[in-house]
């Protein structure tokens, strides 16, 4: 065990080797305190106890912001005095502050360890009794992140049975959350056993044992996951895990009901992922395209730039309904309104193709409706002289598609189209074809900007 670990573990008894420490009933004391803080605190104690602890807290926060973890740990020695504050309100908030600061320091300190963190967490659970459930949950997260799944599960199981006074609504919510995370860990074990099962080719006796074991974990997990997703909230990992298990056991109706409720229940907050999960499930089930379109239509209203919008556009373009073709134009224009999509070659290909088809079918009004909402800013956003040079250098396919769109929307005299039109050599045939199409279908007859 390194020096920091030894000192910290000894400090749990209230003293660091070779030092006299300021004791408190927390029983934790950290190494050498800088003289500047000691003077400030001692001076503060003479005048006002709160002044000294506030001064200390400021030092800790400053050290944490600067990632000075050892210095922050040293300052913590004096902040433990807040647990001896005679003010009842201060005594109530102090354990939570100490837990948050201490756990942050221990999480980042280069000489910390899982054992030290766990010991600190267990101490703080008993001191900050009202924060027992919160600390237990955060402790479990820490253990999960370090791959200690069984320890995290044990921690959550103990926390689930803990009670303090009369059960309050806040306690009830935390217990349900703890149960949900325990269910998620049971799902993790179920998932590992499923992988094991897939490797047991023809070993019937072993396969039967693993199958039964899997089913027991499924029952444990599904019970807790089912409960948490009934409460309005954002429960993405719980929903995905629960649905995966239901699909494995071929309860597709149950899985669809879970996802439908999660996406459409008005009590739940707006969540784009809920509609993504429902769409992906329906796609796996080979649902009719009309049903897929109805799900993505809502996602489009929430996140017009979502990556699934390219898939949505394709579904709309394949549809036989004219209203879907019109919506497809709106969708692909909407995707390209966002900076993250400006160089998406597929999006520009789709727009170029859809514009050409739309104009061939004499739906100039559809194009004008979309373009009129964008003509004041798209030329600068997409079709500037700077961008055309950069696009041509980086991706010629992108440059051609954008030039074609620019020609259709702005006319063959616009900067972007003109620059690409003047490219010779291997580009000559493509340029000629592009010029001809623009001449036939451009929505303007005069040179654009």
Automatic annotation (TrEMBL):
UniProt-listed GO biological process terms: transcription by RNA polymerase I
Domain of life (superkingdom): Eukaryota
Pfam families xrefs: TAF1_subA
Record-level GO cellular component terms: microtubule cytoskeleton; nucleoplasm; RNA polymerase transcription factor SL1 complex
Transmembrane intervals: none
Protein name per the record: TATA-box binding protein associated factor, RNA polymerase I subunit A
UniProt gene name: TAF1A
């Amino acid at each position: 065990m390194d020096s920091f670990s030894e000192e910290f573990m000894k400090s749990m008894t209230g003293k660091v080797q070779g030092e006299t420490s300021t004791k408190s009933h927390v029983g934790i004391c950290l190494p050498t305190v800088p003289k500047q803080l000691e003077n400030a605190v001692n001076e503060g104690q003479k005048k006002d106890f709160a002044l000294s602890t506030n001064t200390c807290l400021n030092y800790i926060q400053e050290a944490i912001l600067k990632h000075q973890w050892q210095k922050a740990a040293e300052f913590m020695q004096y902040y433990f005095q807040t647990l001896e504050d005679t003010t009842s309100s201060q005594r109530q908030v102090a354990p939570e502050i100490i837990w948050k600061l201490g756990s942050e320091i221990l999480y980042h300190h280069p000489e910390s360890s899982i054992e030290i963190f766990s010991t600190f967490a267990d101490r703080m659970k008993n001191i900050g009794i009202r924060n027992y459930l919160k600390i237990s949950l955060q402790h479990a997260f820490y253990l999960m992140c370090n791959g200690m799944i069984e320890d995290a599960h044990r921690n959550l199981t103990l926390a689930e049975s803990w009670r303090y006074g009369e059960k309050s609504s806040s306690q009830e919510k935390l217990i349900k959350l703890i149960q949900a995370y325990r269910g998620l860990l049971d799902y993790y074990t179920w998932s590992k056993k499923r992988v094991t099962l897939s490797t047991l080719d023809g070993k019937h006796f072993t396969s039967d044992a693993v199958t039964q074991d899997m089913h027991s974990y499924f029952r444990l997990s599904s019970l807790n996951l089912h409960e948490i997703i009934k409460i309005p909230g954002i429960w993405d990992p719980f929903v995905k895990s629960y649905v995966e298990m239901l699909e494995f056991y071929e309860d597709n109706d149950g899985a669809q009901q879970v996802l439908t409720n999660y996406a459409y229940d008005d009590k739940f907050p707006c969540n784009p992922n809920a509609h993504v999960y429902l769409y992906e499930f329906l796609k796996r089930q080979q649902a009719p395209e009309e049903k897929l379109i109805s799900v993505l239509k809502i996602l489009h209203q929430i996140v017009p730039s979502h990556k699934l919008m390219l898939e949505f556009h394709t579904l709309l373009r394949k549809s036989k309904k004219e209203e879907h073709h019109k919506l497809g134009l709106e969708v692909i224009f909407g995707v390209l309104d966002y900076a993250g999509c400006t160089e998406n070659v597929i999006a520009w290909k789709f727009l170029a193709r859809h514009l050409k088809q739309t104009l061939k079918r004499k739906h100039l009004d559809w194009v004008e409706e979309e373009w009129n909402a964008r003509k004041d800013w798209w030329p600068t956003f997409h079709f500037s002289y700077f961008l055309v040079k950069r696009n041509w250098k980086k991706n010629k396919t992108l440059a051609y598609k954008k030039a074609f769109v620019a020609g259709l929307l702005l006319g063959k005299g616009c900067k972007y189209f003109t620059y690409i039109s003047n490219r010779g050599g291997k580009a000559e045939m493509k340029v000629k074809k592009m010029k001809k199409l623009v001449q036939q279908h451009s929505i303007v007859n005069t040179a654009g900007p």
